[in-house]
Predict the structure.
Amino acid sequence: MKNNGKQHVALLFGGNSSEHDVSKRSAHNIYDAMDKDKYDVSLFLMTKEGYFMSHEGSKRVFDGEPEEVVEKDEMAKLDMANPIAPIFNLQHADNVDVFFPIIHGNLGEDGTIQGLLRLLNKPYVGSAVLGSSMSFDKDITKKILTLANVANTRYELLTPRTQERYSYDALAKELGSTLFIKPANQGSSVGIHKAENAEEFNEGLRDAFRYDDKVLVEEAIEGPRELEISILGNRQPIASKIGSIQVPASDEFYTYDNKFVDASAVKFDIPVAISTQLADEITKMALDAYEALGLKGMARIDFLVSKDDKPYVGEVNTLPGFTNISLYPQLFEASGISYTDLIDRLIELAIDEHEYQSKILYDFKPLDPKDQDI
């Protein structure tokens, strides 16, 4: 903490995924909501090439200068032949107290940036390496949830080695005639396809394998409602109220376009009117999933609910969006926690988790009766 009594927070955003621009919008909202009487904020934009701009360059992007123009100036300042150049700016971030990564998708949610911040031995907002990487991989997520008895949709996993074993007819016989095809490690509905015949199935697979070498083929839930819940906390997490998403009738699922390109036809119901029984079941499932995956700080968990009110965990998002239409902050706003208070709590949780983890031993030390439990 600086001499002025403020905490120095480094906001990390951008990245090389399809959510690069979404991350920039999330970061700008977080920056605007942060109480500047409490925090000094440094900005670090990760370019699509994978290096971090300086605070000055990142601020120029925040202030509206085209990223491509700023990037040329910033690249000239860095010796990109130096293997540590991409993280040079982070290593020399002056007296950072807490890092706040909001890099959606690849490199941000898959445990990569969390590993770097652990090496820097700094507190950071959100889940650690393992929780992040497990939750980002839809296949691993579903395996962990199944072991924890948290209901999720049935699926088969296809890889380049095994895909020839699976035809549309064989999978339709097992999972139903309507199938959803998803890359295992992608976000924002990128590479997702609905297939109701062999031609759609083969075309969907061809596209999905462009984004990952693991592809899930999932059953469809009849007449599903899409419900969302936000989680906040470390060892004693709390859940928000529940919201719903209604996509236009012309869209078969919540696509990339109606998430980020044109959301004008998407309707949000926050909080949604559902039975107490269903709300309690979803809340318990969400908290059970959060614990099973070892998550910390925050997550938004998406549910599909069938016509007979049976909920299934759809996806777990460890770095959810903070844009103007993002559900994570909206759900907590509806639950009585303002956007600014939410940011404060996330920073406090980051410091709390770092202090907690610092007490865990990694080398042998004889037990001293005077030692206190963590």
Observations:
- The first strand starts at residue 7 and ends at 14.
- The two ends are 24 Å apart (CA to CA).
- The chain has 13 helices and twelve strands.
- The chain has a mean pLDDT of 89.
